[in-house]
Amino acid sequence: MCDLNPLIQKLNFLLNFLFKDLVEHRWNIPMQQSRESCKQVIDDVEKAIWREEGQKHLFEAKRENVDLQLEAAYRQRMADVHQAVKKRLVRFLRLDVPI
């Protein structure tokens, strides 16, 4: 009877090597690539969400800026009216015209 044990061990080693290589190339590498691409997509979506939230704050700041500009224009017009009325009153007082 011949000794098959060393031959079986060599075949076992060869099959394990080939199976590991097959598993590595057919399963592990594609799974790792899928994980990395999914992580990249998640990061991109989180950045897009962050930017969208920033856009809301930017819009609010612009709206507030416009409100401040409108208020400043209103106050300037009120100051102009006040000055015009004051000039008229001073002129009437100088002329001694009854009001």
Between the first and last Cα atoms, what is the distance in angstroms? 138 Å
Low-confidence runs of at least 5 consecutive residues: none
Q: Structural class, judged by helices and strands?
A: mainly alpha
Taking all Cα atoms into account, the compactness measure Rg is 42 Å
- What gross morphology would you assign? rod-shaped
Care to count the β-strands?
Answer: 0
Name the helicity range. Answer: over 70%
Tally of discrete structural domains: 1
Strand content of the residues, in percent?
under 5%
Q: What report would you give on this structure?
A:
With 99 residues, this protein is an all-alpha fold. The protein has one domain. Helix content is 92%, strand content 0%. The protein contains 1 helix and no strands. The longest helix is centred in the middle third of the chain and has 91 residues. 0% of the residues are buried.
List the keywords:
mainly alpha, rod-shaped, 99 residues, 1 helix
Gist?
This protein is an all-alpha fold and 99 residues long.
What is the fold's blueprint, element by element?
Blueprint: H1 5-95
